[in-house]
Amino acid sequence: MTHFHFKAPWGRTLTIISVFTTLLMLGVAFELSAGLRMPAFVSLPESRTLGILLVLLIPLGALPFVIRGYVITKDGILIKRLWWNTVLPFAEIQTVEVEPLALSSSFRTCGNGGLYSFTGYYWNRQLGHFRAYVTDLNRTVIVRMRNRTAVLSPDKPEAFARAVTQSLHS
Q1: What's phi and psi for 73, nearest 5 deg?
Q2: pTM exceeding the 0.85 threshold for the entire prediction
């Protein structure tokens, strides 16, 4: 079987949130390192270093969850992360449907809301509880499985859905 590779392009919202937050965190870290006046009760030099580390941990903590792409293999959908992959096995997949804006009106219950990706646990009225592996809010595909639902955002949603459906029936 040929593997089908799909990119995970960043949409406008993800780009704006990621750039703004990264620059903000770098700016705060720079100000702390430049000797920003600290309140009298936080005058220890260690507190400044700790503050810099904590501020930089925010973007560094989100970085591993970046979605680099999606690969359809003989076994399922491989969601490529920065340092690991997540698999949605074909044995569990029931349907795949293109649904632009599937994350609209969603609530994040636990996860990342736009710093390098929209990943984690979400809920909305249409889908109930689901996992998001999204980089572009306008190119979403819903993958319904036996016991869970996932939302992905491949660069070519229609081609992705056709390839998954074809793989399910072969």
Answers
A1: -110, -175
A2: yes
Distance, in Å, from the CA atom of 137 to the CA atom of 74, rounded to the nearest integer, reads 27
Residues of the chain falling short of pLDDT 70? 1, 35-46
Burial of 83 (0-12, 13-18, 19+ CB in 10 A): exposed
Nearest CA-CA partner of 98 in 167, 151, 169, 43: 151
Q: Extract the runs of DSSP E, i.e. beta strands, from 27-106.
A: 69-72, 76-80, 85-89, 93-98
Please say whether the beta carbons of 46 and 137 come within 8 A.
Answer: no
CA 1 – CA 124 distance, rounded (Å): 36
Residues whose CB falls within 8 Å of the CB of residue 23, separated by 6 or more in sequence, listed in order: none
Task: Give the model confidence (pLDDT) of 66-104 as tens digits.
Answer: 999 999 999 999 999 999 999 999 999 999 999 999 999
- For 17, other C-beta atoms within 10 Å of its C-beta total 17
**For the CA atoms of 55, 69, 87, 4, what is the dihedral angle to 10 degrees?**
-170
Nearest Cα to 80, choosing from 163, 159, 5, 161?
A: 5
